[in-house]
Batch of 2 targets.
Target 1
Amino acid sequence: MMKKNIEVVPYNPEWPKIFASEAELIKQALGDNCITVHHIGSTSVPRLSAKPIIDILPVVKDIQKVDEATKAMESLGYEAKGEYGIAFRRYFQKGKHNRTHNVHIYQKGDPEISRYLKFRDWMRSHPNDAENYAKLKESLALQFPEDILQYCNGKDAFVASIDAKDGFDGWRIVKALTDREWSAVRNLRQQYFFKSKEDPYTWTFEHKDHIHFVFYKNADIIGYVHLQLWQEHRSALRMIVIDERYRNLGFGSQFLNLCERWLNHQGFKTLFVQCSQKTYKFYSDHGYTHMPFNDPNGCKADLQTIEIGKPL
C-alpha cells in the first residue's frame, strides 16, 4: 500500500461550494443513470475539522452501468478504483497523491447510502460527538501522518459507535481491512471451522484470488465468507458462517444471496461448494444441486463431503 501524507485541517466554508460545482460535473458524466448526488464525509459537516478531500456520494439506478461512464469520469480527472473493498460500490479518486475528491457511487436502495447520510446528519446535529471526532482525527493524523491504514484503524471504533446510535439499520459487505475486521475473521474461522487446531489457510488472507468478506448488520460484524475465484468464470465458496447469536433470523440466506449477486456482478457463472450432510439442506433450499467440484488445485475432499454447485 502506497503511503500518503495525512493532514487534518480546520473546517473550510468553501467546501460546500466546491462540492456543489463538482456534483454538477459528475451528474453530467453519469448521465441519466444518476438520480441524485450527496455531500458526505467530514467536509459536509459545518465546523468539523477534516482532511481537505471532498467526499461525494452519487446515487444511480444501475451500479453496473457506472462502468460505461468511466471515460467520462476520467475526463474530469478521476481515477477509477472499482469497488475498492466495499461490495456493490464504484469508487473514484481525483488528485492522485494530492487527492482533492473521493466519489462513492451506490445503486438506489443500497444500505450504505443510508449509513453515510445518517452519520453525516448525526455529526451535524450532535456537536459534542463532532468535536470528539475532530480531536480523534487530529490526534491520529499526528500519530500516523503517513499510514492511512492505521489512521482508519484509529477511527474505526468511533465510527462504529455512531453507527450504533444514529439509527442505521442496514447490512454491509466489505473486504476485511481494519484490525477489528481481521480479528473477527480469525475468530469466526477458529470458532466454527478449526476449533482447537491451527488455521492452515491464513496465507489466503493476502492472495488475490481469495476474497474475505465480513458481513455487518448495523454496527456489528455478524458473519464472514471466504470465496475463491477460479478461471473459466468458476468460483468456490470455501466457508460461510453467521455468528451463533444471529442464526435462524434469515441472515445466512441473505448473506449467501448477496455473495452470489456479487460474484455474478464480477462475471462469474457458477459457484461450487463442498458441504457436509448437516448443511446440505440449507444449500439445496437455495437452488444448489449435485455438481463435481473439480478443484483446479487438485485438492481432495473428505469422503463425507457433498459436492454441489449453482449457476449464477
Target 2
Amino acid sequence: MTRPALAFGLSAVLTLAAAAPVLAAPTDATPAKVLTQGMPSIPGPRRTIAVGNFDLMGPAATPSATNVGGPIAALMETALSECDCVTVVERDAVAQIINEMDLAKSNVTTGSSAPKPGNMIPAQYLVVGSITDYTASGAATGNGGGFSIGGSTALTLGGSSGDVAIDVRLVDTTTGVVIKTFKVRRKLSSMNVGLSSSYKGIPVATNGFFNTPLGDATRRALTDAVLQIDQTLAAIPWRGQVVKADGGQLYVNAGAEAGVRVGDQLTVERVGETLTDPATGAVLKQDMMQLGVVTITDSEPKYAVGSYKPIATGDPARGDYVVAQP
C-alpha cells in the first residue's frame, strides 16, 4: 500500500479526570482494531470491494490543514478487512502492480510466480468519501490548547469536544451508479490530555491515538460506515460472470475463496437493453434477460463449475452474468 503510513510514532501521554476510567493501551506489537463491534454476515458469495479517495472538506479544510483523507481511507480499508464479510481488493498500489507486470513482460523478472495481466480480481463496488469535519477544541484546564489537523501538536487539551463526520458513497463499478450515500458522525467529549506531536499534523492510527477522544470517535464513525455498507450489500444480489460454457456445464469466475459452494443455485442472466443518459453517458437502466439456472457441482478456490438448465431460448456465453439472490 502507498497510503501514508499509519504508525506515525506518536508518544502518547494520557491523563484522565478522576471520574474517568483508565483505558489500557495495546502494545505496538498488538495493533488495535479499527472496528468497535462485529458485523453481520452477508448472505451468498462474498462481494469484492475497493477503497478509493477520501478528501478533506468543510470546517476541517483550512488553508493550513493537511489532508487526513489518505489515513482515513487506509483505516476504512482495514475496517472492511476486519469485518470479514467482503473481499477487499487493493487499488492504491495498482501502479506498482502494473510495473511488476511490465517487468515480467519484458523478461526482467521471470518465474511462474511473476504477475500476469488479467489476473487481478475486479472490484464490484468502490467506496469513496469526504471528511467534512475532523476537529476538536479544548475547554479547559491549564492552557487547554485546541486541536488542529494541520498543526504540529496533536492534542494539548484539558477537556476536549468536537466532531468526526464523513460522507460516504458506495459505487457500483459495473455501471458507475452511486447506489448508496450516507453520512456518519460521531462527537467526542472527554477529559483526556496528551499526544505530543504528529506526522505532518495528522495524529492518526497509532494504538495511543485510538485511546484519545478523537481516535475513539474516528473508530466509531468508521464502524458506523462499515455497518451501513454491510447492510446495503446484503440487500443487493451477488453477481459473477460466466467464464466458459461447455455443453451442459458452466464455469463461473468465483469459487470457494469467494464463498461459492457446491449446491448453490445461480440464475444466468444476459444484459438486454441498456438506457443511458445522452448528456453524460451514465447508465440509467439495464434490462436483464433470464436464460437459465446453474447448480454448482464443483467449487475450486478461484472458479466454480455447475450444471446448466435452460429456462429460455438462447445459449449462455462467456461474459453473461450469474446472480445469487440475497
